[in-house]
Design a protein that fits this description.
The protein contains four helices and five strands; from the N terminus they run ααααβββββ. With about 170 residues, it is of the alpha+beta class.
């Protein structure tokens, strides 16, 4: 009877492991959505950043941004060196959208797993907001609390200005 009990436990564990693998393997990859809503544009911008599709992500920035990068190359420089994005291994969930006239605010939750201690969950899931404005080319991003370089919206901030070159002192 003890052998049957242990065999039952072993079979149960094997079934749980197989079920876990089935769940993980059945999850579909996130896909781009039609750019017809603020939530879809926010999703597509973040997915493009995750996939390293910087040209597509750059296209979601509002052309009215005062400090909008002049090129995709400048956008890549900003996102990879100035922001230090860590979105590649994160799960992003688009939440509630509030639209007031031509402006929309999209709530987003980004879940990132890390190796934590014994009593640490190993999960970071900070919520943040993205602001979009409807224009001629549809909804475009004008601000975000994450995955964003503040100098795009306000290039006059002190740290956004290029330092002036030091002039040599005449002898």
């Amino acid at each position: 009877t003890n052998d049957r009990f242990l065999l039952g436990i072993l079979v149960g564990v094997v079934l749980l492991v197989v079920a876990a693998f089935a769940v993980v393997l059945s999850r579909s990859e996130p896909a781009y959505r039609a750019d017809d809503s603020p939530a879809a544009v926010a999703h597509n911008y973040l997915l493009a950043l995750q996939r390293g599709d910087y040209e597509r992500a750059y296209g979601y920035l509002s052309p009215t941004l005062a400090g909008r990068p002049a090129s995709v190359e400048d956008f890549v420089e900003d996102t990879t060196t100035r922001i230090g994005d860590n979105i590649a291994d994160a799960e992003v969930a688009i939440g509630e959208t509030t639209i007031t006239g031509e402006v929309a605010v999209v709530k987003v939750r980004q879940s990132t797993f890390y190796s934590g201690g014994l009593f640490d969950s190993g999960l970071s899931a900070p919520p943040f907001s993205m602001t979009l404005r409807r224009g001629e080319s549809g909804w475009r991003i004008t601000r975000s609390e994450m995955h964003w370089y503040q100098c795009w919206e306000d290039p006059d901030l002190d740290w956004c200005r290029e330092p002036e070159p030091v002039k040599p002192v005449a002898p």
